[in-house]
Amino acid sequence: MLALLSATTLVLVAGVPWMLPAAAGGTNLKSPQNVDVYIIDDTFILRWNRSRPSVRNVTFSADYQILENGAWLQLPGCQSVASTECNFSSVKLNVYEEIKLRIRAEEGNNTSPWRYVDSFTLFEKAQIGPPKVHLEAEDKAIIVNISPPGTKDGGMWASDSSGFIYSLDIWKNSSSGERKTKTVYSRDKIYELSPETTYCLKVRARLLPRKTGAYSPVYCIKTAVENKLPPPENIQVEAKNQTYILKWDYAQENVTFYAQWLHAYLKKIPGDNSGKWKQIPNCKNVRTTQCVFPKNTFHKGIYLIRVRASDGNTTSVWSHEEKFDTQLQITLFPPVITMKPTNNASLRVYISAPGESENKPVNHLYPLIYEIVFWENTSNAEYFSEQPLRNLLLFTSEELTERCFIIENTNTITAVEETNQTDGEHKKYSSQTSQDSGNYSNEDESTGSKFSEEFLHQETE
Question: Is the pTM above the cut of 0.90?
Answer without folding.
Answer: no
